[in-house]
Every structure is written in C-alpha cells, then in structure tokens.
Amino acid sequence: MSLKSRSGPLSYIGIFVLLSIYFLPSGAQGSDVGNCLLCHKYPGLSRVDENAEMRLLYVNEEIFNKSVHAKVKCEGCHTDITKIPHEPVKPVNCLAVCHIIEPAEEQKFSHKSVEKFLADSVHGTKDQNGIEKPFPEDMPTCKDCHDNPMFRPLAFVKKVRPGVAEDALGRCRVCHKKEEFIYRFYNHITTRLHKSRSPLNIAESCGRCHDDPELVKRHNLSTMAGGSYGQTFHGKAANLLDESVPDCLDCHVPKGQSVHQMHGNDDLRATTHPENRGQICGSTDCHPGASPQFANYQVHPEFNKEQEPVTYWFTTFFIVLTGGTLLPLMGILFLDLLRRLFPNASFKRRN
Amino acid sequence: MKKYPLIINKDGKKHFYRLSLDLRIQHIILAVTVIVLVLTGMPLKFSDTTWAPYLYAIFGGSDMAPVIHRISGVFMGSMFIYHVISIVSQIITKKILPLKKEGKMTVGEVTRVLLRLPMIPNLKDGKDIIGLLKYLLYFTNVRPEGDEFTWKEKFDYWAPFWGMFIIGFSGIVLWNKVIATQILPGEILNLCLIAHSDEALLAALFLFIWHWYNVHFSTSVFPMGTVFLTGYLSEELMVEEHYYYYVKVMTKEGLEDEIKPPHGGGHNPTTCGEPKIVPPDNPSDTATESPNNTTQQGGISL
Q1: What is residue A250's three-state secondary structure?
Q2: A104, A213, A224, A266: most buried by Cβ count inside 10 Å?
Q3: Interface residue B50 vs chain A (CB under 8 A)
Q4: How many C-beta neighbours within 10 Å does residue A238 have?
Q5: Residue A348: closest CA among chain B residues belongs to which residue?
Q6: Would you say residue A148 has pLDDT above 90?
C-alpha cells in the first residue's frame, strides 16, 4: 500500500519528464552541452563594450539550430571559455580545431586549410614574392565575408525546388535510424550542392569592401565593383532576387576551386586575366558558343570620362536628349495648365 | 481600300476624319505593346527600388517577364516594319509615280513633294510653336491655327519613330548577344543596354506624360480622347487644334456658312472681316446639309 502510494506520483513525474524530453525543441538535444543558453537565451542580453558599442549577446536557439554550425559546441569556437559565468570572450578564431569529428577522416575538424589558399589569393596580405602588400590590414579575414549561414536545402524529386524532399528522406531512413542525423546530413549535402547565398547577397557581401570609396581609392581599384555589377543585366536580375544569374564568384573563382583562390586581373591564374577572360562567358551553363570578344562586355562599367570615354559620352548624349526633350515639353504642359486654369488673366492692363 | 467621309454627323454634331481603321489598329498595337514593354522592362532598369520585384513578379519574374517583353517587342517591331512599308508604298504610288507619269521625275521635284508631306515638320510648325507660347504666356488670346497635323502630333509621331528604331535595334542585339558578338565587339552590348534603357525611359515619360496629357488629360478632352478608337475628332477639338485645316475641310465640303470662329475668338480667315458669329448647331440642319458622300481614302492622307 505504502509502496503503491509512493510509486504513483513518481510514475506521473517520470511520464512528465519523458514527455518533456520528447517534446523539447530539437536544439535542446543539440550542441549546448555547456548550458550556455541558460543565459544567452534571453533576447535582451547585451552589454556595452570597451569601444562603447552595444553588443547583443542573445542567441536565437531556433535559428542557430538551422545553421550550418548547429552541431558545433559553443566551446568549439569560443575556446577561451572554461567556466560559467565567464570573462569577456576573445574574437573567434575560425581556423581553430573544433570539437566536431570530420566523418571522412574521423579527425577533429578545422577550416585551417583555407588559410594557405587565402594567403596565396588576391586577398592575401603578401604578394607572390612574399612581400607585404600596402595596407595589409584592409585584407579580409574569415568573418569579413562569412557569417553563420543557414542551411538552404534543395529537393530533387521530379524537379529541383528549395526545401527538403520527404521522398529522399524516406530512402535515408532505410539504413540511418537517427532522425536528427538524417535531417542534418541531408541539409548539409543539398546546401553544398548549390550556393548558400543568393547572387544579391554575394554582391552585397563583396560590396562591403569593394563599394567603399576609401578602400577602392587606397588600393587603386578601377571600379566600385558591387555598384557597377548592379548596372548590368546580371546585377539587375540579382536585385530582383533571381538566383540563376552569375554573381561575383561565378566569374572570379576558377572552375573547380574555392572562393578563397581568387587572383588579381594581372595574375595569369586569374579567370579575369585578359588571356583567360574569353572563356568565362562561353561556359556551358552561361552563354554557350560565345566568342572571346563577347567577354569584352564591360561587366563593371564606370561613368567616368577618363576611364571609359565612349560609355561616358554615349550616356551623356542620352541624358541631354532626355532632358532636352522633356524639360521644354513639361514647361509647355505646365503653361498650358495655367492657361486653362486662369483663362482670363492677361499682361495687358485693361482700361 | 475603305473610303472615309471627311465629315460625319452624329447626334447633330460634326466629326472630322483623322485616322483610318488600319492606323487605329496600328496605334492600339503600339499602345498595348508599349505599356507591356514598359511594365516588364522598367523593373529591370530600376531593379534596386522596392516596387521593382513586386511588379516583376506580376509578370512571372525573371522566368516569364523577359519572354513577355520579347514577344511584345516582336509585335511592336513587326508593326513598325509594316507601318514603314505601308507609308513608303503609299508615297511611291500616290506621289512619286504620278510625277514619273508627268515627266517631272527630278531630284528637286521629288524632294519638294516629300517635304510637303503632311507629317513632315515645316516652317508653319515653327510659327505655331511661337504662336502657342504667345498664347500660353497671355500675349494673345488666339491659339495658333493648326494644320491637318500640328507640331505636337508630328512630335508624337517622329519621337516614337526614332525611339522604336533605336530601342528595336539595341533590343535585337541584346536578345541575340552571342550571335551579335561574333561580328561586333563585346562593348557594343554596353552601348546597346544604355541606348535601350535610356531611350525607353525617355519614350515612357514622353508618352505617359506629354502624349497622354494632350490626348486624354487636357481639360478639353478629359477623361479620354476617343479619336484613337473612332477615327473621328469632334468639331470643338478641330477648331481648337486644327483651325487652319478645319476651315479648308469645311470650305471643301461647301459648309462655309457653318464655319465656327477660331478658339478664343479671333478673325475668321474665310471672311477676312469681323468675327463671324455662328449660331449653335441645329442637329436637323447639319444632318441634312452635310454631304456624307465626300470621302477620303484610308491611311495617312498624302
């Protein structure tokens, strides 16, 4: 009796706990083993740092769990945190060896291999001879271009569309029993099969530096790249959220290589080097059959008399034509309205 | 070809022949294609604005809108070619061949005939512009007495004519850029893009502000001019805009007695004296007196 009286409430609590665990959001089963969200789940969590800038410290668990880094423990990136509550943290080093196991080699994962590609690229701080470039502090580091992107899964069923294909997941479930793994693996693979960012997002990302007048001037660049890209059909379609148009990376990254392996126009390895430029546009996916002179199309046109006189004067002609046509006509139209509104007004004094 | 009476009477009011059915159909094709081309093209020109993606999405976004744009362009281009062939053939048959028959086929004579075609700008247009400015600035109360086609109509004709040529050529190059750059340098695509989009903006502003104001929104015709549908212009508007031609037509039709005074009350050129006060239309009189058997051949009168 007494046993029964004790086990009754316990069994209810046990069922409640089990149900709670079952219905917990997926993130709760994720990587927050350090219980960091105990504090960081509160939307108002913030502080003013040493530079008098407001730092938002809130982590939206739901969004974070849909990001590509959801499986990485907080301490995997924030390696200097060893206790809670913690001191102000150092900036994350993206090249650190993190606490996730890379499945192919079963080693701890790291982005460190990117370092040598980036160092050898146009964005490296040293040139090919190992001499430091002017203003090396302007060169981008990981977080200047990358944030923590969300998965953008694709469904390949009868046609390709954004999202998860339940049909495909059904095939996964035959062998893989862990639902969370199936979803994450599917998301990882299909996100990687296309771009994790839209062309507009890429152009805006590059434009953060390449549209900065000071940086452009300091590095003697010939164009405000993001802005001039926006003047082309590609850029305009990107503005209208078309994902099929080429963005910066499609032309500037050599086929089969990483975005970290871009080179300057004067580097023979660069796709945009005058000797290679002709092959960019004529690729199978873009304009098959295009002649090399097709690529002489100015992808980064500048309205500049010295730099591009033909384009400058051609554009000026149309500006003058438009103004010269419309302004006099608008003047007549305005006078016509006045004449109709005040038909009896006159400059002649009546006696 | 269908014959059109120069003056018809409807509900006791005179209406004057302006446009043949052929030209009205051409105009409607032009109007519809221009509107569709502007709606599918401008979101691309102003792609960085907030409204552009929504307008583009209405036409099917970047999958469908370019297709609609090109189909409209083909219709407009075909109409333009048809129009040019039609006009040139009419000029040859009605103006050049008669000269040949008369044995006057000289360069000077042909030039003189061509310059006298009604849609060709002439000295009177210059005088009419000055006259209109005087009227609009209250220096006179009399509007210029316009001929069959006023300078505004000639402007409305030749501006889209030039525009269609520029926009059409650049559009074809941009559409067939891979083929075009087999011959032309790649930079031509930049120039075509500038010409296509800037000229289109000029055309759109010109048509939707200037042309629409003159033919629809002006207080004389508001809310809508109907000549593009019926082919006939009311007597009031003929008097206001085409008085010189109005008097010619009325005289030709033997209706001198019914000629109304010019807009604003000026001198009647037929009487060369005091302004003639014409009583209000009497529907029964005008209906019986109007010689409806007088006709004009369809198409732009040459």
Answers
A1: helix
A2: A224
A3: no
A4: 27
A5: B139
A6: no
Nearest residue, CB atoms, A287 vs list B159, B178, B191? B178
B206 touches chain A (CB under 8 A): yes
Contact B218 A336 (CB under 8 A): yes
Whether B167 contacts B203, CB under 8 Å: yes
Q: What is the dihedral of CA A313, A317, A322, A323, to 10 degrees?
A: 80
Whether the CB-CB separation of B228 and B216 falls below 8 Å is answered with no
Q: Are strands A54-56 and A46-48 parallel, antiparallel or unpaired?
A: antiparallel
Cα distances from A346 to residues A338, B136, B137, in angstroms, run 12, 10, 8
Judging contacts by C-beta atoms under 8 Å, the chain B residues touching residue A240 are 43-44, 47, 52-53, 56, 61-62
Q: Judge contact between B53 and A241, C-beta under 8 A.
A: yes
How far is Cα B178 from Cα A137, in angstroms, rounded to an integer? 42
Q: Are A298 and B219 within 8 A, CB to CB?
A: no
ipTM score for this prediction: 0.83
Sequence-distant (≥ 6) Cβ neighbours of residue B50 within 8 angstroms: none
Strand-pair category, B13-17 with B7-10: antiparallel
Contact B44 A236 (CB under 8 A): yes
Interchain contact, B190 vs A294, CB within 8 Å: no
B59 contacts B65 by C-beta, under 8 angstroms:
yes
pLDDT at A79: 87
pLDDT, tens digit, 9 for 90 and up, residues B193-249:
999 999 999 999 999 999 999 999 998 888 899 999 999 999 999 999 999 999 999
* Amino acid (1-letter code) at residue A38: L
Other residues' Cβ atoms within 10 Å of the Cβ of residue A61: 17
Place of tokens 């509107």: B35
Rounded Cα gap, residues B177 and A294, in angstroms: 8
Taking CA–CA distances from B178, the nearest residue in chain A reads A290
Alpha helical stretches, state H, chain B: 21-45, 52-58, 61-91, 97-102, 107-115, 123-136, 151-175, 177-183, 187-205, 212, 227-230, 235-241, 243-252, 283-289
Verify whether the Cβ–Cβ distance A236 to B47 is below 8 Å. Answer: yes
Whether the CB of B186 is below 8 Å from some CB of chain A: the reply is yes
- Looking at chain A, the whole-number percentage of residues with pLDDT higher than 70 is 89
Question: What angle is formed at CA A239 by the lines to CA A233 and CA A242, rounded to 5 degrees?
Answer: 80
**Secondary structure letter of residue A232 according to DSSP:** S
pLDDT level of residue A301 (50, 70, 90 thresholds): confident
d(CA B238, CA B234): 6
Interior CA angle at B249 toward B244 and B255, to 5°? 115
| Whether the Cβ atoms of residue B120 and residue A329 lie closer than 8 Å to each other | no
Q: Check CB contact of A298 with chain B, cutoff 8 Å.
A: yes
- Write down the pLDDT at residue B248: 92
Q: Identify from B42, B64, B133, B178 which residue to disrupt to test chain A contact, counting A C-beta atoms within 10 A and taking the largest count.
A: B178
d(CA A349, CA B7): 42
φ and ψ at residue A162, rounded to 5 degrees: -65, 145
Contacts of A267 (CB under 8 A, 6+ apart): A122, A128, A273
- Percent of chain B at pLDDT > 70 equals 86
Q: Residues A6-26: pLDDT tens digits?
A: 445 555 555 555 555 444 444
